[in-house]
Design goal:
The protein is mainly alpha-helical and 78 residues long. The chain contains 3 helices and no strands. 0% of the residues are buried. The mean pLDDT is 84.
Amino acid sequence: MGENKTNAEAVKDYQKQLDDIKVRVPKGYRELIKNYAKSQGISLNQLVIRAIQADAAANGISLEVPAGIKEYKKLENN
């Protein structure tokens, strides 16, 4: 297979590196948070990770994304 992966295969490989966390918020609040993240030019996921890292840093703890996590990049259709 090598370098010639389909987008679906690349996504599947990328997702194998990840864990899921479910966060419950009041109805309608998710959209507010999502819109805020969009206004900052980041995803909701990135916003949550940054918020957790900032809170940990304020308490003297460094929570960096583990090394070796490969970024998923959507393949372009040429």
